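FYI - complex with MF3, inputs then prediction.
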Amino acid sequence: MARVTEHTAIHRTLSSASRTIVAQVWRVFAGRLRTGGSLGRYSVNQVMLKQARQPDLHRKNATQLEKMVAAGRLAARCLSWIVRQVTPGMTTDEIHELQMQFAREHGVTPAPLDYRGFPKSICTSLNEVVCHGIPGTRKLVEGDIIGVDVTLIVEGYHGDTATTVPVGDVAPEVMRLLERTLECQRRGIEAVRPGARIGDIGAAIQSTVEPDGYSVVRDFVGHGIGRRFHEPPEIPHYGKAGRGRRLLPGMTFTVEPMINAGTWETRILDDDWTAITADGSLSAQYEHTVAVTEDGVRVLTVQNETGAWEPPGRWSPAGWID
Ligand code: MF3
Ligand code: CO
Ligand code: CO
């Protein structure tokens, strides 16, 4: 997920670039209007100018969507293959090694490696780690929960998906956090359809867990995705129904709610990546990459055509269901 501050930096760049383009386009149009010159097939109107000012939402065409489907599918298969091997006693570095092996064997690139200086191929987020945990020498122990977040680049397109799994047996209240977080992902995705607004997604997620006393992380958000790992728009997991930009067919983005047992606030460790809950409470996350279709939503990070929304590997809070 994108760190909001980091995104602000990206957006600053984008918006200064788009300001320049708008200014140039406007100068040409204005010049031609003044001189009565031809605008070719185009006529300037308010709608065009408004569109020119919108940040590019990178709607994908059919060819690009097929590539997103392929990237999503492989990312889902990869995540499934990895989490099935998670067992007490293994280190998070071994999870990184598994990711490297999968990428090698499939001839694809793990997007996190060297992304803005991230040192490993995958994020492993244990217990109170909200996201962006760096694989290391810590051994998994029974009772832990671990978030595993895979992003693969397949023929230039990104597929991004994460799950949180229990290590061995975990306490019932911990399973409940996983189950509710999964429900957030499901309801967030269900809010996606053409004409809906970005705020509808966050509103669906907040209303799912806040009554239970859980909180929705605000410092990290879902993100547009495509040729780039993180692109506009930002998809907050909190918000108000009916607010924000309208969703349009061809948009591809992630829905990746991070839900905390305690406060929503986070803190970044000295490694500059690992985000933990400010109060040390547990945090869980599920992530899918989705596409807005003509009449609804398509989850891209599923393992096959009939792929369900369950976490890859079809782990469910009730246990493995394959
Ligand atoms: N996969 C994360 C996301 O869902 C991003 C990880 S960035 C990294 O957006 F650098 F930590 F890998
Ligand atoms: Co993401
Ligand atoms: Co991710």
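The two ends are 28 Å apart (CA to CA). The chain has two domains: 6-54, 59-314.
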